[in-house]
Design a protein that fits this description.
The protein is an alpha+beta fold. Helices cover 21% and strands 30% of the residues. It contains 8 helices and 17 strands.
Length: 351
């Protein structure tokens, strides 16, 4: 069991084994099913849409029928066959193995060859249904939530209430998918501190006032605030809001375990960090526009460049974790509060 001291001035970071041990990795991601995961925007779905997804090795389907969204299992209840491998629009799911048929709400409709089966069909022959919530047209799912969605998102909701997030427009051109050779938690570590900005992100450093960078901790999330330098776009925050009067160029939200919501004056860049193996991670970007005139400007400008700079750092750190000369480090009490908070949540959930 790994312990992270509550006192950041005394605490040591996660040991290197946490990032390179396959058993620790499997134990950690097995608990992801109790958290909320972003899966898409409502505008991506037509009526009778079938959208297969994989979340931490779990095979699921997002469906839309009669105007209602659902998350159901993508595993046939007969012999475990994967039902759907591609996005489609149709009114039924048909198992390609033996022809078992389901409606888009997961109910069994037909199964050839079972005419003489006793006590068939039963509830167990329907596809399991999982929790799905929609927040400002963004869709989130959980297989077994420990925390209600409203509680999970409440701090973001309250702080960003000055924005009309319901008007965000999904922009497919801003989608990106990167596969990196590093443990997922190292990517989150890097995200949760602005300590590295002057050394790694020269352009971003020219947009933000480094000595005014702020970090706030919440129960299951971290907020980092970047203050704009002169001439850099910033939010028009109304009087009465707690950030009124501040020239904020970016709100960087991390929600446990692997979601980043990056709010800029132009809109939202959403990052999902998907663990693949102990040393492989997929980073998925999605973009949602509020003011297209501000695209490409300020702290939310060249995000592709920032991403590649981060990837170089994270992949190099992963190699360092495999070195026998490194065991664990210390936290900067002023600049790495977010990393410390993440590590405490991670180890508490991994006991």
């Amino acid at each position: 069991m790994v312990e992270i001291d509550l006192d950041i001035t005394r605490a040591k970071t996660l040991p290197s084994k946490f990032y390179i041990d396959s058993q620790i990795f499997q134990s950690t991601i097995s608990k992801f099913k109790s958290n909320w995961t972003f899966v898409g925007h409502t505008s991506q779905f037509d009526e009778n849409s079938i959208f297969p997804i994989t979340i931490n090795q779990e095979q699921l389907i997002i469906t839309k029928s009669d105007g209602e969204f659902r998350c159901i299992s993508n595993v046939c209840t007969h012999r475990g066959m994967i039902l759907q491998t591609e996005e489609e629009c149709k009114k039924t799911l048909i198992c390609p193995y033996h022809g078992r048929t389901f409606s888009l709400d997961g109910r069994l409709k037909n199964m050839p060859g079972f005419e003489n089966a006793v006590d068939f069909p039963s509830e167990n022959d329907n596809l399991p249904i999982f929790d799905l919530e929609i927040w400002n047209d963004l869709i989130f799912v959980s297989q077994d939530p420990e925390l209600s969605f409203s509680d999970w998102i409440k701090d973001v909701n309250e702080r960003m209430s000055f924005l009309d997030l319901g008007k965000m427009a999904y922009d497919s051109s801003r989608e990106r998918y990167y596969t990196i050779n590093a443990n997922w938690a190292l990517y989150v570590d890097n995200y949760l501190e602005g300590f590295h900005i002057p050394f790694v992100h020269k352009d971003l450093n020219n947009a933000l006032e480094y000595n005014q960078y702020e970090t706030e901790l919440f129960e299951t999330s971290v907020l980092q605030i970047g203050i704009a330098q002169e001439g850099v776009p910033y939010f028009d925050i109304p009087e009465g809001h707690q950030d009124s009067g501040k020239k904020i160029a970016a709100y960087y939200w991390w929600l446990y375990p692997n979601l980043m919501l990056n709010f800029y004056p132009w809109g939202l860049s959403l990052n999902l960090v998907k663990p693949i193996t102990v040393d492989t991670t997929e980073i998925c970007y999605s973009g949602f526009i509020l003011d297209k005139e501000l695209l490409g400007k300020g702290a939310g400008g060249d995000l592709d460049k920032v991403e590649l700079e981060d990837q170089f750092i994270v992949e190099s750190c992963h190699l360092g974790m495999k070195s026998s000369s490194y065991k664990r480090g210390r936290y900067s009490p002023t600049m790495e509060k977010g990393v410390h908070h993440f590590h405490r949540i991670l180890t508490d959930n991994n006991d």
